[in-house]
Amino acid sequence: LLNARVRDISRVSVQKQKQPSHTPGTSSSAHCGESVMEALREITPFLHRSARLDLKAVSLTHVLGLTGSKDGILLLAQCVELLDNLVGLTEDESEPVRKDAVLALVNLSAEEEAAGALVKQLAHKLVPLGYAAILDENSKLSDPWSMVLCNITRPEHLVEAVLEELLKIEHSIEKLTTCFTRINYNKQKGHLNYLGPLFSNLSQSKRGRDIFCDQTTGLLSRIVPFVHHEASIVRRGGAVGVLKNVCFDSTVHDWLL
């Protein structure tokens, strides 16, 4: 399944200066990277929720622009404090700030290196925030948050860490399944289609498959009908992915039959 990524942003890549011909051993891209890292360290305090709104907005615009390129994402992935502040801004009082912060996280999490950094350092914050936004039927950011959770579970080695945080929330998978199966659950025109790939990603792990195959909750039987969902290839593909992963698990074959 493809990573979720925000496409309609101003893409600002890390500029690479032309390397002088008389110094073939010098890496101009390395110098550029160092200067960008220094700039990121300087704006990190302005990305804190306590900073002035105008400073947060301008700094966040630069960060969001950097997430439009892989080079920019790889640099941002090294800035743990900045990532922490960015996650904090998803709860900011300003709606535009909250939106830009979540969109930046969508693009960051689309690259495995950044997804790994987010999960390793901030899963305990990131996962509950995303879950709460998705469950909130009046949230305007439920779709991008579902993309974030989808992205950070795409690499198989990150699934268990995310699942661990989800399972700290009582009946979290069951409630997410309800959001997925109730068309028009979100009252702000959120589609929640990316919950499908999220479920598919979670079912990469044995524990994830066991959750979906739990006969007492009947989650799999609620998801399977969406393998024929015509309105969204993303939702349909997610349902197919769950079924495929479950079918490849020989321990549940008898139950499936």
Automatic annotation (TrEMBL):
SUPFAM superfamilies (alphabetical): ARM repeat (SSF48371)
Protein name in the entry: Protein HGH1 homolog
Pfam family, one: DUF383
Superkingdom per UniProt: Eukaryota
Annotated ranges, domain Protein HGH1 N-terminal: 134-257
Polar residues biased stretches: 12-30
Organism per entry: Culex pipiens (House mosquito)
Region span, Disordered: 12-32
InterPro entries recorded: ARM-like, ARM-type_fold, Hgh1, Protein_HGH1_N
